[in-house]
Amino acid sequence: LGRKVFILVTAVRFRYGLQQFRRFEMANIKSAKKRIRQNEKRRLHNRYYAKTARNLVRSIRASKDASDVDAKLPLAMKQLDKLVKMNIIHRNKAANLKSSIALHANSLRA
User: Fold this and answer.
1) What is the number of alpha carbons within 13 Å of residue 106 lying toward its C-beta?
2) Which partner for 94 in 46, 52, 75, 80 could form a disulfide, CB atoms 3.0-4.6 Å apart?
3) Which of 56, 47, 67, 68 is nearest to 97 (CA)?
4) What is the 3-class SS of the chain, one letter each residue?
5) Cα(40)–Cα(33) distance, integer angstroms
């Protein structure tokens, strides 16, 4: 790979590239500044996992091939359960998404 990646002081490296921190803090206390940094890292981490799960659900819904959906369905179920366990999405939202993609898979099989 010939391209150079510059990691900035205020950025976090993920598989899909650098994500910039939002740099507006009003805190004066050292522990509050640290809490802001930690929250920002967690926000980017959570956003990455939520986005990958959304893309997986989107690809299942867009697919018209039953075998492709059957291959992706267990991965999506597992990913959504992980998001619930990590407290990134609500368990009812995950249940609704799992239900809708299961209905889509069943409609393709019929």
Assistant:
1) 6
2) 80
3) 56
4) CCCCCCCCCCEEEECCEEEECCCCCCCCCHHHHHHHHHHHHHHHHHHHHHHHHHHHHHHHHHCCCHHHHHHHHHHHHHHHHHHHHCCCCCHHHHHHHHHHHHHHHHHHHC
5) 11
Q: Over the stretch 22-71, which tens digit does the pLDDT of each residue have?
A: 666 788 899 999 998 899 899 999 999 999 999 999 999 999 999 999 99
CA dihedral 65, 15, 39, 37 (to 10 degrees): -170
Residue of 47, 60, 64, 45 lying closest to 98 (CA atoms): 60
Sign of CA dihedral 83, 86, 88, 91: positive
Sign of CA dihedral 60, 66, 71, 74: positive
Nearest to 89 by CA among 44, 47, 37: 47
Q: Which residues, in sequence order, are CB contacts of 60 under 8 Å at separation 6+?
A: 69, 72, 73, 76, 101, 104, 105
